[in-house]
Amino acid sequence: MKYVPPIARVQRFDKKFMWQYLTSFFTVNTCSELICFTIALICLTRDVSLIWRSMIAYILITCIVEIFGIYIARKSHNNTWIYNIFLLFETGFNSLMFSYLLGKYTRSKPLIVCGLALFLFLYVLGIIDHGFLFYNNFTYTIMSVIYVFFSLYYYYFLLKDECYINLKYSPEFWWVAGTLFFYFSTTVCNLLDEKLEKIMITKTENISYFIFQGLNIILYGCWGYSFICRRWETRRSVN
Hints:
Shape: globular
Helix content: over 70%
Oligomer: single chain
């Protein structure tokens, strides 16, 4: 057996440990978000619409929060305060996009403002009730229901639209599709959380963990494709 000096063994261990530590940040969720961010950066950087370009900033914030959340969870075992802060960004950016999408068909600002007012009211009540270190789950659920309503409302106008729209290449359609599927499904999962927690897939993870991973892939997959469609749409309009 080849003799390995003690210092070399420590260095080898440190390198292995560091590699495992760094790769542990690349989960299914963070990888899907990073891929979506890369697509957004490529497709939306020169977009003429500020609303679409803002998605780059939103997904970047999402990636930072997810990675930082993993880091904080290992240090203090409580990272919910980060997601309470992120909830404000999530609501702000998504409401901005829905205002833009619905604004093509109707006066969307009163509806969006009402939704934001309800969200902020429940958000403040939740923080007062159980503090900042517990996730504001009820507010998130209500926010999800609002997004489902906005999505269905958009599809209602889309069905009534007399202009021909090729849905296969419609960025708005795919953005709303991902949003509707994600927030509707997460709402159902949250309502059935107690039952889903009892269904263990592995020794440490229940079925909810894998469902939410799948939902994240669907959300950022639809969003990524919508960004690609937006890029194609912009090129066609320029040509």
